[in-house]
Write the structure tokens for this entry.
Amino acid sequence: MIGPLRRLRMGVAKSLKPSYDVVIIGGGSHGLATAYELSKLGVKNVAVLDRSYLGSGASTRNTAIIRSNYRTAQGVAFYDESVKLYERMSVELGLNVLFSQHGHLTLAHTELAIAGLRVRAETNQLLGVDSRVIFHDEIRRIAPALDLSSRPRFPIQAALFHPPGGIIRHDAVVWGYARRAQERGVDLHPYTDVTGIDVVEGRVTGVQTSRGPVRAGIVVNATAGWASTIAQMVGLRLPIVTHPLQALVTEPLKPFLDPVLVSATLHVYVNQTDRGELVIGAEIDPYASYSMRSTLPFLETSASHALELLPAIAGVKVLRQWAGICDMTPDYSPIMGITPVGGFLVDVGWGTYGFKAAPVSGKRMAELIATGRVPDLIAPFALERFYTDSLIGEKAAAAVSH
Amino acid sequence: MAERLGGGGRAINFSWNGRRHEGRDGDTVASALLADGVEVLSRSFKYHRPRAILCDAGRCPNCMVNVDGIPNVRSCVTPLREGMDVRPQNAWPSIGFDVMSLTDRFNRFLPVGFYYKTFIRPRALWPLYETVLRRAAGIGRIDEHGHPELHPRKRHMFADVAVIGGGPAGCLAALEAAAAGAQVVLIDDQPELGGHLRVRTSEVAGDQRLEGLSGREAAARLRELVAAEPRIEHLADATAAGLYEGNLIGVTQGATFVRLRAPQIVLATGQAERPMLFRDNDRPGIMLASAVLRLVWLQRVRPAPEAVVLTDDDHGWRQATELIAAGVGVTALVDTRPDAAAAGRSVPAERAALRAAGVEILAGARPERALGGRHVTGLRIHTPAGERDLRTGLVALAGRPEPVLSLLAQEGVRARWDDQLGEFVPGDPPAGITVAGHMRGAGEDPLVLAGGALAGRAAGIAARGLAADGTADRIRDHERRVAETVAGRTPPAPLPRPGGGKQFVCFCEDVTAKELKQGIEEGFDTLETLKRYSTVMMGPCQGKMCHGLSARVHAGLADSSPAVTGLTTARPPFQPISIAALAGPHLSRIRRTAMHERHDALGAKWIDMGDWKRPLHYGDVAAEVRAVHEAVGLIDVSTLGALDVSGADAGEFLDWIHPNRFSDLRVGRVRYRAMLDDAGIVIDDGAVARLAAERFFVSTTTGNLDGVDQWLRWWLAGSQRRVAVTDVTGHYAAVNLAGPRAREVMAKVTDLDVSRAAMPYLAAVEGLVAGVPAVILRIGFVGELGFEIHVPADYGAHLWDTLVQAGRPLGLAPFGVEAQRVLRLEKQHAIVGQDTDALSTPLEAGMGWVVKAEKPDFIGRDSSAAVAGRGPRQVLTGFEIVEGGVPAEGAAIVRHGTAIGRVTSSKWSPTLNRAIGLAWLTSDEAVEGRSLTIRLGVGREGQTSSAVVRTRPFYDPDGERLRS
């Protein structure tokens, strides 16, 4: 049967087995990617548990921006592998994830911001990532709708251009991983709430769920915004504070904006999807909360900031706003790997940048589980770094720079 | 054919697709077009099928057009204005013939989610495919270089009671709340109050004020009553689009956006008819019965002389009678309920009237498909007696209306499926919000009217804090009657399983029942995942037309009940709001110092620093630098943040906030401050002067004032410390007078003893300078003898003038930020935020001396101890260029192709006659005299400069000049 008439076969496991080798808590992009990669490595007695439908959390609430123009060498290397995996993903998973690589522009409105962009460009270039500082002529060519005049309060002066950056269909990523993982024997259990984790003599032995207990020697915490609450179940305190992050989407318009636009000065980012909608986001809300209720100030300030960049959108209407929650770490880098509790692994602290890292996290976490060795690429992100003062400071490149 | 009814106003000219048309005052854009022979207003999103008025209430996507360059305007609720330029969207080459409508024929190859399954290989061709796919996206078009001026306004309102919905329940609620003494804001999305009564002729029963009046008369009476009540403010043409935490309502009213807060909210948003499911149910000429009535009564346009009415509820019988009263003949009433005997049972009067009018009643019949192409020509129905074609040019859909629950859902209240009613009804609202009227599911006049009045009275009483009267009991009685009425209902039949052809569930995204079926079969079997896969409910209407239908179709297909399926989460806004309206007037803060005009007169080149405008230079940076070193310079430092920190515990509090100590600072002395966050990272610096035992003057960097102010308040909140923090930045104007002759200038403008003995380095003195009260701090950032003088802002210009006049004979020159940057770099003074970042600890940034590890506790103590334990990994250090150009700030320093550091500041020093800078280097590289290679970067790719590490200040390394 030819492509479009092919039927997908999404499905979920009917019954919860009493025992799995690996239980992954969190059926988002990270949990599913890890399960899929585990199945490729031959570890197949794996269950993915989620309290709601698969992809119900941050995986499909984020604004689906992919890029690798980070600030630190460790961050660049890690996200670069992720971008490469995303580029191959449609073929790998047999599902078109609609990766739209029209480039990513980080705008600078001040001298200081330009210096910050130069630092990133230099780090990126030295590590082989396509990223450079550009000025008005080139910006105008890439994003003609941007207001480059001196009308705005803080006129745009320069930008960091990262051609491989872009946006993707986040739902498709979730479905692609879920479908392949399940085909390879992974059990997917949506609507299965984890209520406790059993620990005996410092090692996990299983989890308690709303559908009964499950034994497991390895439990992976891939629950993003709820990461610290799950870690508490084994008595582990993570250096994580959960904050809401909001976004909005406009009515679909004929495409006029190809690259992703980010302005840290205005705390806003804008991109136009392949459906034609403008997706607009901001930095995290300044207060800690698990609330996923949208706010009016977000709507107003984001609209005003987006309008400052793109005066042409004045008459465009906002269709919908929503919120998700983000597990923020002090250095804006994730926490991956082993913990003091035997068999309890974390893939958390994903803040506002988790979706970008799903494929590489899945691959390297699976490698860790299958081999018992921490892969070099994720070693810098160990929980231990907070005790050895080896932080990976990505605040400058990750804060609003979706 | 549509025809204009009498009684219209004056003629209004406008254009459609470049052609001239004429409408009447009172028309909407859509009704004017319809009356002037234009029915098809848009082409659908995916199949480019012709679409025309469906709801006439601004809820569906069918009437979206471009008006005067603004895309996606709902023409059915947009009043016609003279000279409007109206254009169709999403059609090429024309709205009449759209090439893309071929997709309608070949849709077999474009099933739900087809793009997920195609264009996967070869990978190299994907960017090309994507470009094609992207081109097909979107509906409206904007001029990307345009700059539409929509003159938005913001309004902030407060009320005791907000009533949302101007139908009979809403109006009575507002009247009763006002009668209880409450200030009421009544929000209604129509131009005039009355709700559905405005298009209803049948008699209203159940409230004395309206007894015996026809619907339209009752609407007029309600308008009079509301207008006569001074405590009600009526917002017309205003949509409550968002309901947010704390009873904050976002209201969109044309170009105005209203933020309304009310402790009590009455939701009376009513109910609305929705499309019904049969093949080709989107043909032009098929519209909601309420749309037909609105066109006739409100816009004076009759879409057709006769109609077939389709229903699944007694509501349809009422609507059929109303259509006849409105002058639209009803040839047949098709009631799809299988139990023919039940049809019309609750409406005996209408039943009799319809029979008397000769309407053919076809109970137990089922619609098969619409006939016709660009316009409906009939309806094929399946009756127990066999298949039949009913010829008609207008099909009026009068299925059971659904309560409008979106705002309640925004509040987090989940809708509950009521099996008896066969619809979703509101769950229990939180305190402060009540739900009244048709939203409750019981649509009988007496229940709607009494419910509205009671809800309003209760809200008024609650908001005013009045003693409870009998209202609560009456509400309980009322609730019981509602429950009894609902219990007496005949449950509706479930939806028939959808058959073949295109039966549209979602008009925005062109999603058919068949596609939902396929999606479910592919495993997207919850409403949430089905929504995301099929895009049902994701279009411009956001489910307003299709939410309930989607849930019911899904439940039918998935062999489930809507009770299990539930609804997806409705999110704000209820109606789309323009970016401009949300953004409001274009306002941005610009702060100018008290000496701004003086700088302007001197020809200053300006730079933005935070909100402030600062002079970058006055034309000759080198001369400014020279003046400071050789004579005396004057810089405006009013932009530094200034906080007054006072109270018995102020010293101890500052000790806790900072790594160094202030409680032991003597009155009359000033000390450097650096502030750390919990992770021991430097986040701000400045000075702390002790002006009195319990009063400290704290300065911050220019951009950081708000952050520092919040930081202090954050740490004070909840603590027992007796400390008050006051932002006094705007109160003061300040300058720094710096240079070897600064003391001579000071001596000319003050009677204070400014000698080295009386006013040594780090002294803090209050006294008169230039005849005005001043705070004088003996500090400086530029490496020369300096006096920082703060005076009340009103005297800023006077201080500047006095100093300039006194200093001129001594060689005084004003200097700007650029000269300051050079001067401080010669001293290797770091600027927090430029030379430091989110990883910079004081130890590594060369300010390790501020950390007093022996202090019992302070913010950042543990982290600082850890850094001290492990030693510095990277170090902020100076460098000078030996050969090559001045590197850009941000440039990388490399060894063997790997980064070993980066430049944070670099300048040409006219004093030293070479380029100097500050850079972060790995600690093993930060050794005096070490050679460095610096990439020049942007614009100079491939070029490098050679430099050497310089760990000591380039100028006056021992600080003798500063202390002089």
